[in-house]
Design goal:
Helix content is 50%, strand content 0%. It is mostly helical.
């Protein structure tokens, strides 16, 4: 059960920090989209180097497809596993591998 929070944004921030479980606020891809937005907004572009992008990415679908290929994350049938890529992205952020940022 999600604790009472004043807004969706606060719920997303709590989920990014790992305070509440991701699935309680929405699909993992939606949370990854919010993280990508925050990293770009704060000009924290370490993810660009890690995922070997040519530059900052604004589109979560494009990013997750690229990240899945970079991680060699494929589902049965050979399609990129974007959910796995999103979970990896969130985990790397929480471990400080994509730059440090205060979420307030």
């Amino acid at each position: 059960m999600l604790p009472s929070v004043p807004s969706t944004e606060v719920a997303f921030k709590l989920a990014l920090a790992g305070v509440v479980e991701e699935h309680l606020v929405g699909p993992v891809e939606m949370l990854a989209d919010y993280l990508l937005f925050l990293l770009n907004q704060h000009n924290l572009l370490e993810y660009v180097e890690f995922y070997r992008l040519s530059g900052a990415c604004e589109d979560i679908d494009t990013f997750l497809l690229h990240a899945a290929r970079r991680l060699n994350a494929f589902m049965t049938g050979g399609l990129p596993d974007t959910s796995r890529a999103a979970r990896d992205f969130l985990l790397r952020f929480r471990r400080g591998k994509l730059g440090l940022m205060t979420i307030n």
